[in-house]
Amino acid sequence: MKNKLITFLKYSVGLLIAGSLLYYVFKDWDLSDLLERFKQVDYSWVFLSVFLSIISHVIRAYRWNLLLKPLGYKHLTTFRTFLAVMIGYFVNLLAPRAGEITRCGIMKKNDGVNMSVSLGSVVAERIVDLLGLIIIILLGLTLQFDRLSGFMLDFFNSKTAGVDINSSVIQLMIVLGVVIVFVALVLWWMRAKIMRLPIYFKLRSFTIELYDGFSSVLKLENKVGFWSSTVLIWVFYFAMAYVVVFALPTTSHLSLLAGLSILIMGGLGMSAPVQGGFGTYHILVGSVLGLYGVVEKDGYFFATLIHSSQTLSILLFGGLSFIISLRVKKNKIDV
Question: Domain limits of the chain?
Answer without folding.
Answer: 16-159+170-327
